[in-house]
Amino acid sequence: MRGAAIAPFRALRYQVGVVGDLGAVWAPPYDVITEDGARELREKHPNNIVRITNPEGEGPGRYEAAARTLRSWIDGGVWAREARPAFYVHRHAFNAGGATHNRVGVWALLRLSPYGAGLVLPHERTMSGPRADRLSLMRACAAQLSPIFCICSDPDERVGKLLSEITSARPDERAELQAGESHAIWKVEKRKRVEELAGLLSDQLILIADGHHRYETALAYRDELIAGGAAETGQQAHEFVLVHLVPESDPGLLLLPTHRLVSGDRLNWIDAVLKASDTFDVVRLSEADLDDVETVLERESGRPTFALMARGEEGAWLLRLRRPDMLSSIPSVAFHEIFMSDYVGLPAEEQIARMAYVKDAGEALGRVRSGGVEAAALLAAANIGQVRDAAAAGERMPPKTTYFWPKVPTGVAVHVVDPSEVVGGEEEPVESRE
Questions:
Q1: Whose CB among 76, 289, 325, 364 lies 3.0–4.6 Å from 376's, allowing a Cys bridge?
Q2: Are 85 and 10 in contact (CB under 8 A)?
Q3: What are the start-end ranges of the H helices in 6-75?
Q4: Distance between CA atoms of residues 428 and 9, nearest Å
Q5: In the 8-state DSSP scheme, what is residue 380?
Q6: Nearest Cα residue to 174 out of 79, 87, 82, 91
Q7: What is the arithmetic mean of pLDDT over 200-223?
């Protein structure tokens, strides 16, 4: 049985001769950019993609402003469509844990399918606000600006081996987006290589690593266009979504935890921990222990473990769920659906209302110590196999269960959503591609 359909595409791309440094016009994904960060990126280059992905202003007018910017860049030669379909192999080099890592993925199109079809596996629950925002931007621009970061199963590592072969050649483009990170791009457009890569990628199950809201937005936009009379052939541009695919076996695929901050009325954390000791192994941590809590949690990776620190309480508690099942072995599930629901007594809706998310453990602890939040939960990281198995079983996990780092930059390629366009079609015939 074949997996999801993957296709090359005629990307809308920055023209290096016009913009110069690609690192100055690419940007992180829209949802990790702060207002100050967006301002800095706009000042960095007049054609930085953040001017479209994170448009200024309020209300519907900001989406139309983004669309005008997009059209002006095309008219001015900043962006241009490629003449023929291609894949874009992307090597992202970065530093972590004192070592240099390389993550290699492919920019491509993925045929949209509902989650129930079992070809594309989600793992997180989503919220309506981000979906509405991205749908408004997609309608205005008729383009997919940011890729869905996906993991392909690649059980025999054939995809990984082919990508290694492709990246052994000289790259077509290089860029540095920020200090300590570098990017190299290989455009794959010769027919034989395109067909080989498409065949291997289309034999995979696809797990969404990052971009659930954008995937669901693309599904909604597809359905909206079809309801309005657009063709439904399985090959039209609106029936695909822009993705960045990384093989599961890639050694540069790092999964980090996202920590929780709890605000609102004061809760009885001591009582909750005492009750939870029937189900969790509980260790009391001193203030001195907190200096090493990240090291402790690194050793707990893949286990249903978290450290809880409450405002006004010295030290913290380390909790590890006993006898977890497949789903509750994931740290975010153990925290939200067992500890917070069963022992703190907060239903899921109230948890979401009270919850904020941070990546840095030191920031989380500082917010509790300063009295800025009620409590912090520092989570161990899940592993990719746990997430994949739960997703394949149809389970959905709490928001921000995974944090794949580093993020895939926006700006490498854009998918133009023209309902009249057939994916794989060319602007002009090409006689030979050997």
A1: 364
A2: yes
A3: 16-19, 35-44, 50-53, 61-75
A4: 14
A5: P
A6: 91
A7: 93
